[in-house]
UniProtKB/TrEMBL annotation:
This protein's record includes keyword Signal: yes
Signal peptide: 1-18
Entry-linked CDD domains: CAP_bacterial
Keyword Signal in annotation: yes
Upper classification of the organism: Bacteria, Pseudomonadati, Bacteroidota, Sphingobacteriia, Sphingobacteriales
InterPro entries per record: CAP_dom (IPR014044), CAP_sf (IPR035940)
Domain of life of the organism encoding this protein: Bacteria
Source organism (scientific name): Pedobacter chinensis
Cross-referenced SUPFAM superfamilies: PR-1-like (SSF55797)
Protein name from the UniProt record: CAP domain-containing protein
Record key words, sorted: Signal
PANTHER family per UniProt: SCP DOMAIN-CONTAINING PROTEIN
Limits of the SCP domain: 102-210
Amino acid sequence: MNKLFLFFILIGFFLSKANGQSWTDAEFRKANTAANATYLTNEEKNIIMYMNLIRIDGEKFYYTFLEDYINNYNAMVKKYSNYNQLKITRTNSYYTSLLKHLRVVKNLQMFYPDEKLSILSKTHAQDLNKNNIGTHESSNGDSFSKRLSKHFPNKTMSENIDFGYSNSLDIVCHLLLDCGVPSLGHRFNILDQKNKLNTVGVGIQRHPSYTWCAVIDFVAQPMFYTSNQ
C-alpha cells in the first residue's frame, strides 16, 4: 500500500468518526482510478478520486469530505470583515439542494483518466494562465468542444473550470456546490448519468488573477474503451 493511498484511508477513518459515516478500503481503491497515471500530479489524481467517491456514495461524501471542506473554508474566511457574506451556511440554497441531488447518487460509473485528454486540459489551463483569461474559450477563440473534438471526434463532452484553488478537495467541493451558478452545470458534470461521461482529463496551473486554475474535461467513450492510465 503506497503512502498516498494510506493517507486517504486515514482521512476517511477520521471523518467517519467525526460524522458517523465510514469509507472502506475497497471504496478508496475503486475511486482511485488515476493511481498509476504518471502524467498527472498527485492533486490532479486526487481530483479524479474525489469525484469518483461522490459517484460511489453521494450522500456519504456530503456528510464527510464536503463537511470538512465547508468547516475549513468558513474558518479560513472568518478573518475577513465580510465574513457573513462569504461563509457557507447550512441554510445556503446551494448546500441544501446538493443534498437532494446526492441522496440518489450511488454506485455510478467511475471516471477514468486519459493522457491525451489531460494534455488538452493542461494546455487550456496554461493558456488561461499565459493570457490571464477565465473562460472555456481558448485565447484564439476556439470553444472547448472545438478544442476537444479535434482529438475526440463525434463524442459527447463537457468541461469544468475552477479558479482560486490548487487543493484537489477544495476544487471538487467548490465545483460540486456550484454556488452562484444557477444552472449547476459543474455539479451535474460530476454527477452525470445522462451523457455517460466516463473519461476525464485534468490540469492544474497557476493563474495571474485567481492564483490557480483547474481544468477538468469530460468525454463519453464506448464502454469497451480502455483508458491509458
